[in-house]
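Section: protein folds

Sequence with per-residue tokens
===
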Amino acid sequence: MTTIQHTFQQLNGRPALITYITAGDPDLNTTLQLMHSLADNGADIIELGVPFSDPMADGPTIQRAAERALAQGVSLRDVLALTARFRERNRHTPVVLMGYLNPIHKMGYADFARAAAEAGVNGVLTVDSPIETIAPLHRELRAQGLDTIFLVAPTTGEARMAEIGRLAGGFVYYVSLKGVTGSAALDTADVAAKLAVLRRHIHIPIGVGFGINDADSARPIAAVADAVIIGSRIVKEIETHPGREAAAVGALVHGLKAAIAGALPLKADSRASARDAE
């Protein structure tokens, strides 16, 4: 059982809160403080963004965060070192690196997977690595006991869902909206219907992200999903509270955790398939 699987098992059917921040925004030392603030205030899993110069899947808020980090020269190796520093105090909160393939390809898949495992990374999500080309990286990650996290879009067909279900580990990230991160107008009923289809093919937890900005939008998603994923709103808090980023983010996450903890499933068995598979 991987660390991410164990985390979901410990939640005993309650929805997880998965939070995203960009490593190096506004600087690496503050990112470390933010990671601890996230964990201390209820984040069950931390997605740590690896800054990249062409973040095609990200909206303007996260793009600006990547630009701020890149302006300081933050690299993939810096992100791994940051994770190792986080592990000096926190050994249990899973860390998922989220980013693009180019820096990993440049480092080398085997070297990256080994270094990530040594640093305390638990999973990797590369947004531009489809199932057709993921095999070399997936093989190296699996050899090191790391989960490969996949994105599923609203337009994903059932055959592709089944293939993702065969390869994915930890959890699957359902992108609830067409577009980039930070989009709005989330339709909870549509998400619930799509999750029902996904669960016919994917038997690990499914987290829902994009379009979730506050307690009011998180609560209904928590009623139907195995995890609520929030990124752009957290990054916006960092951007708008210079000098007190950790406190601002901690307060936001504390409120979000309370909101999803109180969410009632729309159906008693709405998350059963994911729980039973663990």
Summary: The chain has 13 helices and nine strands. The chain has one domain: 3-262.
